[in-house]
Write a structure and sequence with these properties.
This protein is globular. By secondary structure, the protein is α/β, with parallel strands linked by helices. The model has no long low-confidence stretch (mean pLDDT 97). The structure holds N-[3-({4-[(3-aminopropyl)amino]butyl}amino)propyl]acetamide and zinc ion (ZN).
């Protein structure tokens, strides 16, 4: 099974984030990708391929040009004009309905960024672009005839929307992949199995009748991203019916999780998609430091089997998952279950 990975993804090194007003260690550390890559090598998957310059184009096709300009230039321009900062955090957020774009970059810090957990450091843009390029290249391989491809993306992407970023995500890797698949023709189902609702991914698909988005995740009434991911969100306008959210309560055990995933997968198949994109998060793991669900390593093998049973050409995009010690074996279990 082909794997796409770019070493420059590791240049994103957030020193700290702000949690409840205080500096706090981030969970999206580079060792996450190191562990996942080691598991890929150990299990003998490959080849491990790097994306090329030609894989960056869909980023501009799906994201707001001004947000991309901000992500690309803000760190350097702020540090050229003021005290060098480790990374940029927003202080001011635009109220609903008030979204003018100030000239001063300091004022733009909160224009696209939704939280204090997603700092913009010196190499964040380069890493985010590399991560999105991995998803793009993976989609190119799927279009070229591969059955299953794994994009080892870091930073993750499903909390980034067309013109917003947050939740450790800057560019939406799954949406980039979806765009490439759509260009080749045929509909796409995005199945999001991260612990958190993919509010960015939903924003991309909710108005699009050709892209289905389904997710099972922690009830947003109780956890991040709080403002989207409820069961009554079903798509808008022409996209009515193409969003399916199945929120689950805190501490959901594995059996209930797997039963819900089976229902969600059946919904995906009812859409009759041509391609499948799976947003893979291992923060549903029983020992995950920020999740509360009870999925075990063996559970990821069951999930892999379920995905394989759908019989669709499948692109796996890495999202979250923060329990370092078992990250590699959980990925190995998923891929073993997939049988590829
Ligand atoms: C891609 C992804 O998984 N992003 C997750 C963003 C979550 N941000 C909020 C983290 C809140 C952490 N709360 C920790 C509670 C520990 N007991
Ligand atoms: Zn997550």
């Amino acid at each position: 099974m082909r794997v796409v990975y770019a070493p420059s993804e590791q240049k994103h090194r957030p020193g700290h984030v702000v949690k409840k007003g205080k500096p706090s260690a981030t969970y999206d550390i580079r060792e996450r990708a190191t562990r996942l890559l080691a598991a890929i090598r150990r299990q003998g998957h490959g080849p491990i391929l790097a994306p090329s310059q030609d894989d960056t184009w869909p980023i501009r096709a799906i994201h707001d040009a001004n947000m991309l300009d901000y992500l690309e230039t803000a760190y350097d321009s702020e540090n050229a004009s003021s005290d060098p900062a480790e990374a940029l955090f927003p202080t001011f957020f635009p109220p609903p309905g008030q979204r003018r774009r100030p000239t001063r970059v300091y004022g733009r810090r909160g224009l696209y960024c939704t939280d204090m957990g997603t700092p913009l450091g010196p190499h964040t843009w380069e890493a985010a672009r590399a991560s999105a390029s991995c998803a793009s290249a993976a989609a190119r391989y799927i279009v070229g005839g591969e059955h299953t491809v794994y994009a080892l993306c870091r930073p993750p992407g499903h909390h980034a929307g067309p013109d917003f970023f947050g939740g450790y995500c800057y560019l939406n890797n799954a949406a980039v992949a979806t765009h490439v698949l759509r260009q080749a023709g045929g509909t796409v189902a995005v199945l999001d199995i991260d612990y958190h609702h993919g509010n960015g991914s939903q924003a991309f698909s909710e108005g699009d009748p050709e892209v289905w988005y389904g997710s099972l995740h922690i009830d947003p009434a109780t956890d991040y991203p709080f403002f989207a991911g409820y069961a009554d969100e079903r798509g808008v306008g022409d996209g009515e019916g193409t969003v399916c959210n199945m929120p689950l309560p805190p501490n959901t055990p594995e059996t209930a999780y797997l039963q819900t995933l089976e229902r969600l997968a059946a919904m995906a198949m009812a859409f009759e998609p041509h391609w499948l994109v799976v947003s893979v998060g291992f923060d549903t793991y029983a020992h995950d430091p920020i999740g509360t669900f009870g999925v075990t390593t063996d559970g990821y093998a069951r999930i892999g089997e379920l995905i394989a049973s759908l019989g669709l050409r499948t692109l796996l995009v890495q999202e979250g998952g923060y329990y370092l010690a078992d990250l590699g074996r959980n990925l190995s279990a998923l891929l073993a279950g997939l049988g590829s």
